[in-house]
Write a structure and sequence with these properties.
Blueprint: H1 10-16, E1 21-22, E2 213-218, E3 221-222, H2 223-234, E4 240-245, H3 254-259, E5 264-269, H4 282-286, H5 291-304, E6 308-312, H6 329-345, E7 351-357, H7 365-372, E8 381-384, E9 387-388, H8 400-412, E10 421-428, H9 436-443, H10 445-452, E11 456-463, E12 465-468, E13 471-474, H11 483-491
Helix pairs in contact: 5-6, 6-7, 9-11
């Protein structure tokens, strides 16, 4: 989670919530007391420091299990923020020469999305599939392709019917309804947003052909009813929903499987036991000590069958001598590669790998983030967690654009230059002295993404409080008057209608 400043019910309910509920209140020994993920402070306005959503004991909103079932899906009590089971990622899309079983692997499935002799991790097709998305050189007019940018997310000027083509920006991320092939047509999908285009669909790596995926993380109450209840308020179905799980959790659970039939599931898998506080060392994962856990998770994800976002140990740069000592950057890289390899070996090809960082650029964080990157062959998306905490952390108010700008440029020009970007967490506080501020914050999202940050192809709104160092930051979508209506308005914009 990105931090903006250095200063920065009942036993019955607990029992009922063991499989499909995020407990709405922290409990003793729970996330705020060492039971789940949390965040630490970041001394830089553009830093993505922890604030209570990630793995750490100080965050009552952190993912985790329950008192009686700490590893169970949607555990309550001990870890109210734990949405779902455990996991790994056997279904990694995007094969390469060394991964003949991965989607798009040259020779095995040359026409598969992501396959390419020269760019096995790219978003385009291969030389033998000139009609594949974004095929470099061979089919510059293919969906998402461009002669000058084989890894681009947008269409080219010579293919006005291609998804995302805008005629002027072959590397752009999609039309906005005003250009050819855009998304101004009405939706035929009752679960979509108003003005949705049937053309804004995802490929095998869940990258939308135009616009961006609109997602949410909900914590309070029953996960199913909390999610569907929010959807009723905002007038659409979310394209993505987030769940947090600890190392031995059995995910995806029944709730995630059910909700995941009509939405894309995003699983954030933490190398920690939320109940005991045990830290799973990256070196041990890399050395094979946890292969049984990883293989079982891979098999479960494979059996789910649908594409799933999976983030292995999100915000891991804060796990090197900050939140906890999980190991070195080299240890993480080795662990991530081993996990990916096991998922591939069992044939879990439906998993889409997300490399999620806090995004803070203070001190030596930029160097850490570069050193932690496991390589293009092991990553499909890159993400970070920006927030506007405002007074909660005694920091200046930041607009949506200001909260993402510095980190966006660093990622887009660096490790993510050939990858789509995602905001796995983001949110804003409400300003009681200027109530319209937060509404404008939400209002601006579609136009800001479309005109200034086209590589962001998905974003997941954090709908909960977070706690950091005993300070509770109130960040739900409906934190004050005007916030929910403005969020609804943003979500109904055609640019965010991709599914």
């Amino acid at each position: 989670m990105r931090q903006a400043s250095a200063l920065s019910t009942a036993l019955v309910l607990a029992a009922l919530c063991l499989t499909a509920c995020d407990d709405p209140t922290p409990s003793a020994g729970g996330p705020g007391e060492g039971g789940g993920p949390a965040h630490t402070g970041s001394p830089h306005p553009n830093a993505s420091g922890a604030d209570g959503s990630g793995p750490d004991g100080s965050n009552p909103n952190a993912p985790g299990g329950s008192g009686s079932n700490p590893n169970g899906p949607d555990g309550s009590g001990m870890n109210p923020h734990d949405p779902d089971g455990a996991g790994s990622n056997p279904n990694a899309p995007g094969g390469s020469g060394s991964n003949p079983n991965g989607p798009g692997a040259p020779g095995v499935n040359p026409s598969g999305p992501g396959g390419s002799g020269s760019d096995p991790n790219g978003l385009g097709g291969s030389g033998s599939n000139p009609n594949g998305p974004g095929a470099p050189g061979v089919n510059p007019n293919g969906p998402g392709g461009s002669g000058s940018d084989p890894n681009g997310l947008g269409g080219s000027g010579s293919n006005p019917n291609g998804p995302g083509a805008d005629g002027t920006n072959p590397n752009g991320s999609g039309a906005d309804g005003s250009g050819p092939g855009g998304d101004a047509q009405p939706s035929q999908d009752p679960g979509g947003a108003a003005g949705t285009s049937a053309k804004c669909r995802v490929n095998a790596k869940l990258v939308p052909s135009c616009g961006a995926l609109w997602g949410v993380y909900v914590r309070n109450g029953w996960v199913d009813s909390s999610l569907t209840g929010l959807e009723a308020k905002v007038g659409r179905r979310f394209a993505v929903f987030m769940r947090y799980v600890d190392w031995r959790a059995q995910f995806p659970d029944a709730s995630a499987r059910r909700l995941g039939q009509t939405r894309h599931l995003f699983v954030s898998w933490d190398t920690r036991d939320y109940k005991s506080g045990e830290v799973i060392r990256w070196r041990d994962v890399a050395n094979g000590a946890h292969d049984g856990v990883v293989r079982a998770a891979a098999q479960r994800m494979k059996s789910f069958g649908r594409p799933v976002f999976l983030s292995f140990d999100h915000e891991m740069e804060l796990h090197i001598g900050q939140r906890r000592n999980s190991g070195t950057a080299a240890d993480y890289v080795a662990a991530a590669r081993r996990v990916h390899g096991i998922f591939t070996s069992v044939g879990a090809r439906n998993v889409v790998w997300v490399f999620t960082l806090s995004g803070g650029l203070w001190g030596d964080q930029a160097a850490k983030m570069r050193a932690l990157y496991p390589g293009d062959a092991y990553v499909d998306w890159v993400g970070w967690d920006p927030y506007n905490f405002y007074r909660c952390h005694n920091s200046p108010w930041e607009s949506f654009a200001q909260s993402i700008d510095t980190s966006y440029r660093w990622f887009a020009q660096g490790i993510a230059r050939n990858k789509p970007l995602i905001l796995p967490e983001y949110g804003t506080a409400w300003d009681p002295s200027n109530p319209s501020r937060a509404a404008r914050w939400h209002d601006s999202i579609p136009s800001v993404l479309k005109t200034r940050y086209p590589k962001i192809k998905a974003l997941i709104r954090w709908d909960s409080d977070v706690v950091n160092n005993g300070i509770r930051c109130h960040l739900p979508i409906d934190s004050g008057p005007g916030m929910l209506p403005s969020f609804r308005k943003a979500g109904l914009d055609p640019y965010l209608s991709a599914r």
